[in-house]
C-alpha cells in the first residue's frame, strides 16, 4: 500500500541511514529489509538524534516547506499567481486540483512516522543522556502536532462545509494500518495536546538553535492553532508565554529586508535548515519566485495590485522588485543556490497572533500592534480593528504561505481582483475547493478513508 501503509512499514534501518545522510526520501520505496522491527535498531541517544534529524530533513523536501506548501498558499490568494513559465503551480493557482493532484500528504505522514518512532522509545532502556532523549521526544511531539496542523488546514473540511479532519496517527507500526479521519474538533484537541506534551518535555539546557524545536516553539505554534480555530484564550495564553520569555525580538526596520538572508535571526523561533545535502536547488523557493540566476523558473509572479499595498516609508516594501517588467518577490528566500533556511514561525507572527487574540477577548491589542509598527517605518495606530490586523498580517507575512490561511479562517471569499489570477471567478467561502481532495493513492489503499465532497 502506498502512503500510510508505506509509513507503517518503514524500519529503523531506512530511517537511520536516511537521517544520517540528511537526504530527502521522496523517491525511495520500502524493501524487504525495511520490515526489520524498530525495537532492535535504537539503542542510544545518538541513534535517536539521527531519526530526529531525518524528520527535519523530510520537512525540507520541495513538496513541503522546501517550496510547495508555501507557494500553494500564496498562488491561491490576492498576492501571487502562476504565469505558467514552466507549467508549474497553474493547477493549484486555478483551483483545478483533483484526487490525482495530491499535495504534501506523503511528505507529511513520513515526518509523522519519524516522530512516532522517537516518541515510542523508552529512555530508560537506552544508552546516553536520558534527559536529552526526553528532550528529543519533546521535539517529536511538537513536530507531530505541527504536521497534523498543516495537514488539517489543507485537507480538513472546516472551511468547506464539513466536519471531517485528517487521520491522526500516533503510533509507528501500529495495529491500525488504515486509519479513518478524525473530526476537525478531535484533531485540534490532539494537536494542542501534542504541543503541550512537547512543551512539558523540552529542556532549555539543550536549546542551541532555532533549526531545532526549542522550548518556546510549541507555544508559538499553539498561538497559531488558537488563532486559526478561534480558540482565543489558547492563542492569548500561548503567545504570552513566548513574549514573556524575553528570548525573541522584532527585527529592526533597517534589518528587515536583509534578515531574510540571515539564518537564526533574533526573531526566529523555528526554522528549517538547508545544508548542501538538503539543498533542493532549482526546485527551491528562490527559483520559483525569481527569474534571475541560472535555471530559475520564475513561475510565481506578484499581482500588480500588491505594489499599492504598502504606505510610503514602510520598510516591508523593500522585498518587492521588478524583473523583466514583472513584479517579483526579491527579498524573501533570496538565495538562488537554495541554502537559505526557511522560517516556520517567527516572533512577529506570534505578536500578531497575540494582538488578534487580545482584540477578540477585549484586551489591549494596540500595544503589540504598535510595537511592530514602530519597527516597520509606519505611523502608530490609534485604533485596532479586525481588518487592520488582517492587513498587517498580509504586509508582514506576505510570500511566507500565510495569506490563504488568513483568508479562509476569517470566512473570506477568494476574490478575483485581477485578470492575472488563474481562477476564473471569485470563489465563495465554503466552496468545496477550500479543502484539498484526499490523494487517490490513499483512497485506493485505505478502506476507511472518506473523500472530501465533490471530488
Order of helices and strands: HHHHEHHHHHHEHEEEEHHHHH
Radius of gyration: 21 Å
Strand order of the largest sheet: 1-3
The overall pLDDT average reads 90
Low-confidence parts: 1-37
What is the molecular shape?
globular
Helix content: 25-40%
Residues in β-strands, percent = 5-15%
Count the DSSP helices: 16
What gap, in angstroms, lies between the N and C termini? 21 Å
What does this structure look like?
There is one protein chain. It is built from 16 helices and six strands. It is mainly alpha-helical. Strands 1-3 form a two-stranded antiparallel sheet. α6 runs antiparallel to α7. The radius of gyration is 21 Å and the shape is globular.
Essential attributes:
455 residues, two-stranded antiparallel sheet, 40% helix, mainly alpha, 6 strands
Summarize the structure.
With 455 residues, the chain is mainly alpha-helical.
Question: What are the SSEs and their pairings?
Answer:
Blueprint: H1 4-9, H2 12-20, H3 45-59, H4 68-75, E1 80-82, H5 90-93, H6 105-119, H7 130-155, H8 184-201, H9 217-228, H10 232-245, E2 268-272, H11 285-289, E3 300-302, E4 320-323, E5 326-329, E6 342-346, H12 347-361, H13 366-374, H14 386-397, H15 403-409, H16 440-445
Antiparallel strand pairs: 1-3, 2-6, 4-5
Helix pairs in contact: 2-3, 3-6, 3-7, 6-7, 7-8, 8-9, 9-10, 9-12, 10-12, 12-13, 12-14
